[in-house]
């Protein structure tokens, strides 16, 4: 059984296209989408879905969209998608380098080898220089290159401080742990 309003919309779309609909009531007439009937076909499909209840109980139904704010931002949906999906690596190189620059020390602290630290800082400096050379437009690159030797010495200091803090925490835990004495012999 087909939807009567859907059939009527298909009939009107065929009439507007100058085609004759087929007489078989069980089979909907073949419809080719073109510029004249595309909008009507889409509207018909939406109306059919509404009547069938396919849009009922959607999350956020009847609620205002969150995060729109008071100012008009045409790219609000892109920003929301980036935030909800936790996407990274999207945007102009100048902005991505600024974000990476803020977290570079934390990234370096996760490394265990001095050569790896040197490679990461040299790669960062190369990308900063490459971004400065681009003529594609966009925001200016204000991120500075890093001194490789200074970054390695700062990495060593942070690593030594973390090692000392870890040792002190282990000693404090050992001092707070109650000592258990085992009796070698039991009295009866």
From TrEMBL:
Residues 164-175 have a biased composition (Low complexity). Signal peptide: none annotated. Residues 1-28, 164-188 are annotated as: Disordered. Residues 179-188 have a biased composition (Basic residues). Residues 42-108 form the DnaJ homologue subfamily C member 28 conserved domain. This is DUF1992 domain-containing protein. It comes from Microbacterium esteraromaticum.
């Amino acid at each position: 059984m087909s939807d009567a309003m859907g059939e009527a919309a298909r009939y009107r779309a065929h009439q507007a296209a100058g085609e004759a609909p087929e007489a078989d009531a069980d089979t909907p007439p073949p419809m080719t989408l073109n510029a004249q009937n595309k909008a009507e076909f889409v509207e018909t499909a939406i109306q059919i879905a509404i009547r069938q209840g396919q849009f009922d109980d959607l999350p956020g139904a009847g609620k205002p969209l969150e995060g729109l704010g008071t100012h008009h931002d045409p790219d609000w949906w892109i920003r929301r998608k980036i935030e909800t999906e936790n996407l990274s690596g999207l945007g102009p190189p100048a902005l991505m380098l600024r974000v990476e620059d803020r977290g570079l020390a934390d990234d370096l602290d996760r490394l265990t080898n001095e050569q790896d630290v040197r490679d990461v800082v040299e790669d960062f400096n190369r990308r900063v220089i490459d971004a400065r050379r681009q003529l594609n437009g966009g925001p200016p690159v204000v991120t500075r290159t890093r001194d490789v030797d200074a970054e390695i010495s700062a990495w060593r200091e942070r690593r030594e401080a973390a090692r000392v803090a870890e040792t002190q925490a282990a000693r404090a835990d050992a001092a707070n742990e109650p000592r258990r004495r085992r009796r070698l012999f039991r009295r009866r």
